[in-house]
Amino acid sequence: MAQRTELELIGKIGIGQYIPTGSVVHRLDARMKLLLGTLVIGVTIFVSSITALLLLFLTVLTGLILSKVQVRLAFISLRRVLPYLFILAAIQMLAVPQFRLNAELIWEWKFFVLTDRSLMSGLLLIGRFIVMVALIALFSFTTSTTELMHGVEHILRPLQRMRFPAHETALVINIAIRFVPILVGEAERIMRAQASRGADFGTGRHNFIRRFRRMLPLFVPLFILSLQHAQNLAEAMESRCYMGGSGRTQLIQLRAERQDFTALSIGILAVLGALCLSIFQVDRTIWRGLKTILS
Questions:
Q1: CA 170 to chain centre
Q2: DSSP state of 204
């Protein structure tokens, strides 16, 4: 049973799946979702406040709830990456010397030093990653690849005056996203074929190094299959006389409605609130209040 679970890859991918539920988030304009996603990711990287990240996370969580998609699906991919993320955060908190300058000492053991600045940096690293994973999952669950392609193309259309390949760029993004489940399915098929011939892929939770070494024989056939799929796609597009985006008309015309502007306004308010929390350093005020209470 454990070996069978390890060979099931499709169900372990939380990001990259479109789950149509007909919710209000699904009905939003793809351009608005792209703009909101880019804005939230940019602010997530910029802010240096735990409360600001918490506000952004609550905003994304509200979107997941409104999308009527199971919230746990957004964190399936995060569950496997989280141990490595904690290791990176621990290294950053304990072994980066620059966070020891002008900082208050919390804990020290030999050459490991934990200060308030290093603790904040580690928490910010984990918080940023969680917010971005949840946001990407929300966008993936509520936006089909066709909507994504049209949204990217409509946003980049003004750049066509400067001979920027807007249609080709959107097409490349669409193909790349569509190839993810195809390649995962091919990897699962190869793993099952090799396992039936006695291959061991290192099942278990505590032997990820051994599992990675067992995965190496998958790379060559998977690479060859990806080239074959790319060649078949190129031949199919050529047989249909695809000549690029020049002179092409648009079958689907995107139009923003009242609900789209309402969602954009709510997203901008959340982003501005996160920026205010970061600029006015609300975390320091809360930290000082906690130290006063504890002392």
A1: 18
A2: S
- Closest among 188, 166, 184 to 250, alpha carbons compared: 166
7-46 burial, b at 16+ Cβ within 10 Å, e below that, comes to bebeeeebbbbeeeeebebbebbbbbbbbbbeebbebbee
Measured distance CA(98)–CA(39) in Å, rounded: 29
Q: How many CB atoms lie within 10 A of CB 226?
A: 14
Task: Give the integer Cα–Cα distance in Å for 39 and 53.
Answer: 13
Return all residues near 60 (Cβ < 8 A) that are at least 6 apart.
40, 131, 134, 135, 138
**pLDDT digits over 190-235, tens only?**
878 877 777 666 555 555 566 667 777 778 888 888 888 889 988 9
Range of the domain at 284: 2-294
Say what angle helices 116-142 and 50-66 make with each other, to 10 degrees. 20
Number of domains comprising the chain: 1
**Other C-beta atoms within 10 Å of 130: how many?**
20
Most confident of 40-49, 100-109, 193-202: 40-49
Q: Where are the alpha helices (DSSP H) in the chain?
A: 2-6, 30-46, 50-66, 76-95, 116-142, 145-156, 166-196, 208-239, 258-279, 282-294
